[in-house]
Amino acid sequence: MSTLELIDCCQPLASSPLSDAEAEATAMLFKALADPARVKIVNILATREEAVCACEFHPALGLSQATASHHLKKLTDAGLLEREQRGKWAYFSLNPEAVAGLAGLVDFPEVVR
Questions:
Q1: CA distance 68 to 57
Q2: C-alpha to C-alpha distance for 79 and 98, rounded to whole angstroms
Q3: What is the CB neighbour count within 10 angstroms for residue 39?
Q4: How many DSSP H helices and E strands does the chain contain?
Q5: Angle between helices 65-77 and 36-46 (to 10 degrees)
Q6: Which of 17, 23, 38, 60 has the smallest C-beta neighbourhood within 10 Å, fewest atoms?
């Protein structure tokens, strides 16, 4: 009896599946990003080389200072942002580990047909 070779679409997945804890942590990151203002905040920070003062977000987003602060807190609590206090102002930057983790999830290899 001969054995049939698996075709490409039936090959086992190349990467190992996420553990339950990894899937839960990743879902929390995506939940934190599930708001247009938060996506804009991440985009602003991704285009800057240095940390951004909290005072810059409310005019950039067209939101009140309190609402911008709420969104910054949600992203910080989720681990996507790092917060540094400088005098009376807080400065924010992307957490490189969180960004790398997200990038690894959405970095799809090129599909060869």
A1: 6
A2: 7
A3: 13
A4: 5, 3
A5: 80
A6: 17
Residue 74, number of CB atoms within 10 A of its CB: 19
Enter the tokens of residue 3. Answer: 């054995």
Answer whether 66's CB lies under 8 Å from 82's CB: no
pLDDT in tens, 31-62: 999 999 999 999 999 999 999 999 999 999 99
* Element holding 68 (H helix, E strand): helix 65-77
The CA distances from residue 7 to 11, 21, 76, 109, in Å, are 7, 32, 44, 18
Please indicate, yes or no, whether the overall pTM of this predicted structure exceeds 0.85: no
